[in-house]
Design brief:
The chain has helices spanning 3-35, 39-49, 53-70, 72-81, 83-102, 109-139, 157-160, 163-187, 190-221, 228-250, 254-276, 293-296, 300-327; strands at residues 143-145, 151-153, 279-281, 291-292. By secondary structure, the chain is mainly alpha-helical. The longest helix has 33 residues, at 3-35. The relative contact order is 0.15. The model has no long low-confidence stretch (mean pLDDT 90). Its main location: membrane.
């Protein structure tokens, strides 16, 4: 396997890790106004992700750094073209992170309510806008090559807000919301667990419908693709896993439901990556203007050095993250939330 293809897969795996792990963080944040009857409930919800949410976000940082080093042209074109959408994601992530740390400072109800709103909207916007962005990468965006090398994005934010892009955003939003609700049910006991399961059942139906529509639309757009069989296979696995997760949640098997949602997110993203391959960005102006993996990659020496770094560091990161989840594996209840706790 060529190093360019290997790093396309590595970046994909890192992005999958981010959306699977930070995905349930987003879902928990979205659940605050629906499951939080009082401040103790809301503190309980936040504490389910308290020890891990910042660790989960590091996957985005690592993926961004890898993207910059391995495919600088992809990084430059996407971050300049999608600038406003990515800026909104960054602001939302900052507000959400600050709110986790400052909402419990005890400065009154209005103070807490404001930060709860920041957590909610900071959890809604990122998956919605990420879904819009990835859907547009698959559908094609108005990019064209520059004379001196590189590519330029010739659209605006409104260009991204097309029906297929919005469906991709809605699908990502609903799947992460369901993922987070199942995680709440997995991490809590009593009434909170029951209410999270019930809401996950309702939201899960909407996620299945939206996900099916998005995957079918994606397949139809790529009927002539050389990787059609991979696209269809990944889409089928994602659909089966999502339906299986819904059934598992309905039967009270939160562990299997969480695993199923994780698999569904992973293979939905794999569907997108397979629809992109062997390009990084499809051009809606002219297919000849599309950005190929080889054309956007760094030098061979850079990729070789990055490969050795990844071989030694990724196992350590995975081991540390697994240890963290093992340490904080116990379920939580309202009884463990003392007055004034985070």
């Amino acid at each position: 396997m060529e190093l360019t293809t290997l790093w396309f897969l590595i970046v994909g795996v890192m992005l999958i890790g981010y959306f699977v792990l930070d995905g349930f963080d987003f879902g928990v944040g979205m659940s605050l106004p629906f499951l939080g009857k009082d401040d103790t409930d809301r503190r309980l919800l936040i504490n389910t992700i308290g020890p891990v949410w910042d660790l989960n976000e590091t996957w985005l940082i690592v993926a961004g750094a890898s993207l910059f080093a391995a495919f600088p042209e992809w990084y430059a074109t996407m971050f300049s073209g999608f600038y406003l959408a990515l800026l909104l994601i960054l602001v939302a992530l900052i507000l959400r992170g600050v709110s986790f740390e400052y909402r419990h400072q005890g400065k009154g109800r209005n103070w807490t309510r404001w930060f709860d709103q920041f957590i909610f909207w900071g959890s809604v916007l990122p998956p919605l806008l990420w879904g819009v962005a990835f859907a547009n990468l698959v559908q094609g965006v108005p990019i064209a090559p520059l004379e001196g090398g590189g590519w330029i994005y010739e659209g605006t934010l409104l260009t991204l807000l097309n029906p297929y892009g919005l469906l991709g955003g809605l699908t990502m939003l609903l799947i992460t919301f369901t993922h987070g609700l199942v995680f709440v049910a997995l991490k809590t006991v009593g009434d909170m667990r029951k209410r999270a399961r019930a809401l996950a059942t309702k939201v899960g139906i909407a996620a299945i419908v939206a996900g099916a529509a998005f995957l079918i639309w994606t397949i139809v757009q790529h009927l002539e693709s050389d990787t059609l069989w991979l696209i269809v296979t990944c889409a089928v696995v994602a659909a089966v896993a999502l339906i299986g997760a819904w059934v598992a949640n309905l039967r009270g098997r939160e562990g299997w439901a969480f695993t199923g949602n994780a698999v569904a997110i992973a293979f939905a993203l794999l569907t997108i990556f397979m629809a992109l391959f062997p390009n990084l960005m499809h051009s809606s102006i002219d297919p000849a203007y599309s950005m190929s993996i080889e054309g956007a990659a760094s030098s061979q020496k850079t990729l070789e050095l990055m490969t050795w770094v990844a071989v030694f560091t990724l196992p350590l990161v995975l081991a540390y993250q697994a240890w963290t989840y093992w340490v904080f594996r116990k379920r939580l209840s309202r009884d463990v939330i003392p007055a004034g706790a985070h």
